[in-house]
Amino acid sequence: MFRSLARKIQMLFIALFCTTMLSGTNSTLADESHENALLGAGAHFAWIVFDALKEDLKRATGRDTILFGENSMLGVGCNAGIKAAQQNAIGHETFGFVCCPLTEEEIEKEQLIVYPLAMEPVMILTHKTNPINDLSIEQIRKIFSGDVLNWKEVGGNDESIVVVTRLHCKDRPGHWKTILPSDKEFRQERLNVKSASAMVQRINDFKSAMGHIGSTWNFKPEDQVKIITVGGVAPTAENLKNGTYPFYRPLSAITTRNPSPDVVKLIKEAQNGPAFRRVAEQYQLLPLNPMRQVSVKK
Amino acid sequence: MLSTYRFRLIAYTVLLVAFLTITLVYTYIYSRNVILEEAENSVTNTASLLNGNIEMEEKELLHYTEIVRDDLRIKEYVFMIVKVGTDGEALASLYERHYGWLPVKRHIVLGDNGRTLLGSEHQDLARALVNHMEVSGKQIFYMQSGKGLEMITWAPISYQGTRLGVVALTHVIDNVWLKKHQQYSGGYLFVENDSVILLSTLPGAESQKFELNDGLLEVNKETYQIRPIVLSSSDERIAHLWYGVSMRDLLAKLERHSRIVLLLTLSGAFAILWMGLIIVRNFNRPLTELIHITRAVANGNLPVMNQTQEKNEIGILSNQFAEMLQALREKQEEIDRIHQELEESAITDSLTKLHNRRYLQDIFPRLLAQAQRDHLFLSGILLDLDHFKQINDRHGHLGGDQCLTHLSKLLKETSRANDYVFRIGGEEFLILSINDSHEGSRLLAEKIRSTLEQHPVAFKDTIIPLTASIGVSHGDTSLPPDESLTNLLYNADKALYQAKTKGRNQVRMYIQMDELEQSAWDYGS
């Protein structure tokens, strides 16, 4: 009898211990300070966009919106956005962001609803001291593929070109694949970075570098980088709309298949609200309005 | 004397003092060598310690080098420079941004084609690095840098399986380094090349000659114990690092040590001597006293020995010995008393307490000699109680004893202080008296007779009248004592017989009985 009682007490302590440990490691979006807030995380752009919309979203939903962006424990990136969306539960309402178009197979597999927000131009970056201000699509593709190795071949200085890439979400369509469809086609002698900030840093360091970045990046005044036009076309929302700017990526919000009404309300506000228009204008985003839900019907 | 404890204690003390003195003098004499040997070891150990520190610095610098080498960004940038052909500005920017804080003197990145990718201003370092890598694969080496030395560590940089070049970092061993390391070494550090001191923490040593003589260096008329500090892969042609300690400082320590040793020697010797004297005094005095007393006891004396307040073993022994002497004295007194009593009983009649015949024989020669010396007469008054047998028969022996006791008392009271009274038979008594004439003897005898007659004995409500017959004679001084006594008793007895035969209770003198027999009778009363 005593042995049985001791065993029960032992089990109770083990259960308490495990609960304590798990609650400590699983703090992410379930922190007490986020109670009654709508929680979002994902690609970097969303942190910029939704942070700017925070007040409007609160007015629309009556609830705070807390975003986990570049300094979050979740990190940034599309995979983090999908994971955030999948953590949705009653009393713990979440949504995510992706900067790459998801395949239909992935949407079905992860049981997601995708809410397209905007089209973002993928800008071509060079060092500020580089005399080249414009390159054709072909020249850009040749530089990225390694067919052109020196700036003098495209009218610039006699300097070897340093190609800097950020080839993320390799299994998803779109984004950098508008430049070259496969990472195999990019020049082997290149610098491949893991983040947008590293991209900017590399361009800063190499005067003969060229790279790419989404338009929602906030450059610092001291950054020695510039954005060049592509075939005389600037990376703007207007040029995306009229189809003259060739490099872009779609930005989307995602939820699980049973999102809470407040989350849906929040995303609708983000898609249609006037604040989003202002942000889109600032960052040259092309809003994808009216709302188009991309999902697989049951 | 040699076997006495006093001598032994003194000998032990002297030997101990001598041993201590010799030991400490030996220590004093050889401490110089000991200190110098220890100093030599200390110099060697400190040099080893400095070697260890330098090895740690080498490892630390190599660690920094490998950190830089392993940075993926560094590799990518070097790759871009080597494979793409860009300039090193981006690499310099990256290095300063991420590793500008490293505590190193210089840094350089060389491409495998010999091109300086980073640190192009350090061409001397680049040449030394290339030269070193041609002859050695060791990642740590030294080069001469100005007057000092420069520690260099390098590591190869590879990217995507291809070796692109090397990165090298340096520390410099200059005056600052020497002073920093001198703080805990306590001696002096020298950088020497071609027998000339290039750098030193010893003031005024720079540019002085560096010539070793049996491990000693002389600089500015001072001598230093000196040891090399071995550097990894150092080229024989470059400067060397040395560590040294001033001999003057060492000898100053020796002087301090010598004074302490001398002080200890004197203090120790004095302390042992003083303790020896204390021990000798404490042991010797009571032992000597005991020896004197036991010697006195052996000679038949029992001297008085005072008790001591000392509680130690010697004090306890002395006190017990004193108690033993006291007990012996008391026993001796008792023996003397008993002896005296025995002697007295041997010469005293037990009933009358008068002297007996034995004492008469003892004392007679002395009295005879006295009379002869003083030209006096030694008279013998022989007295016999009249009818004593009848008294005994009538009153019993108790009555007879009472009469004898009574007579004895009267004789003592009547005779002079220097007269001797003896009981020489049952009812016979003798008084020896020294007089200047026969008449004195006769008067004394008559006094005795009349007194006795006048003082009868009271016994059991009965008055027993007593009388005595007395014969008086004198000792012949011309005869030997024995013969004179026999003669005196014989003659006195004759006179007594006359007194008895003439009616008792009378005195008869015996004077030259042969010629004056008649006149002797005439003296009767």
How many helices of chain B?
A: 12
Distance between the termini of chain B: 82 Å
How would you name the CATH homologous superfamily of the largest domain in chain A? Periplasmic binding protein-like II
- The span between the termini of chain A is 55 Å
The CATH architecture of the largest domain in chain B can be named as 2-Layer Sandwich
Low-confidence stretches of chain A: 1-6, 12-32, 290-298
Rg of chain B (CA only) = 65 Å
Helical content class of chain B = 55-70%
Oligomeric state of the chains present here: heterodimer
Mean of residue pLDDT values of chain A: 81
Strand content of chain A: 15-25%
Question: In CATH, what is the class of the largest domain in chain A?
Answer: Alpha Beta
Mean pLDDT score of chain B: 86
Quick one: which chains have the greatest interface? Answer: A-B, 14 and 14 residues
Largest beta sheet: strand ordering of chain B: 7-6-11-10-9-8
Tell me the series of helices and strands of chain B, N- to C-terminal. Answer: HHHEEHEEEHEEEEEEHHHEHEEHEEEHEH
Which regions of chain B contain 5 or more consecutive residues with pLDDT less than 50? 518-525
